[in-house]
């Protein structure tokens, strides 16, 4: 409970969110506006950061906290249903039942993962970074290989950051316990 903007570590959260814009700036994103691909990668990823941040403020910052008394499975189902409705895919007639079910399954898995991330880090920013990776793989312009490189880089950085975050928390806990 009590998720906050930065969570248990401000620097860990900031580094978690920065990895994707940095990688997208380095690798670049093709565009139809004839803008420099590196500039466009930066601008595009920053815009996606804000989009994901606003969603996570609602999903993790408010709703997950409001549902704290529910069991994990119930919380996942409620948030997943609302998140699915939020995307309005059911209004697109070309989407098949199979695609709807896959999208919902993806949302359920994403909800589970994001709940676990925020339970561990207490950080809306860290959840935003992970949410951003979902958006990157499904909606961002650019070649799949580049998106895959960005995603793998982010996952490696996040694993390192979560390890560092655990050590920071253990150190804080042990220091407090000693007094």
Instruction: Give the CA-based shape.
Output: flat
Number of strands: 0
Low-confidence stretches: none
Rg from C-alpha positions? 18 Å
* Helix-strand category: mainly alpha
Strand content: under 5%
Mean pLDDT: 87
Query: Could you spell the SSE succession in H and E letters?
Result: HHHHHH
Any overview of this molecule?
The chain is mainly α and 179 residues long. The protein has six helices and no strands. The chain has helices spanning 10-27, 37-66, 72-87, 97-121, 124-139, 144-178. Helix 1 (10-27) packs parallel to helix 5. The longest helix is centred in the C-terminal third of the chain and has 35 residues, at 144-178. The protein is flat. 30% of the residues are buried.
Summary tags:
6 helices; mainly alpha; 179 residues; flat
């Amino acid at each position: 409970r009590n998720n906050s903007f930065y969570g248990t570590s401000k620097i860990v959260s900031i580094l978690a969110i920065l990895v994707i814009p940095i990688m997208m700036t380095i690798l670049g994103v093709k565009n139809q506006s004839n803008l420099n691909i590196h500039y466009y990668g930066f601008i595009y990823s920053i815009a996606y950061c804000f989009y994901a941040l606003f969603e996570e403020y609602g999903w993790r910052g408010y709703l997950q906290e409001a549902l704290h008394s529910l069991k994990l499975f119930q919380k996942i189902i409620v948030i997943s249903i609302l998140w699915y409705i939020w995307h309005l895919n059911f209004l697109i007639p070309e989407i098949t039942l199979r695609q709807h079910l896959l999208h919902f399954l993806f949302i359920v898995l994403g909800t589970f993962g994001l709940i676990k991330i925020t339970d561990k880090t207490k950080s809306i920013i860290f959840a935003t970074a992970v949410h951003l990776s979902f958006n990157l793989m499904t909606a961002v312009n650019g070649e799949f290989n580049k998106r895959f490189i960005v995603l793998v880089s982010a996952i490696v950085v996040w694993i390192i950051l979560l390890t560092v975050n655990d050590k920071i928390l253990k150190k804080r806990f042990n220091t407090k316990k000693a007094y």
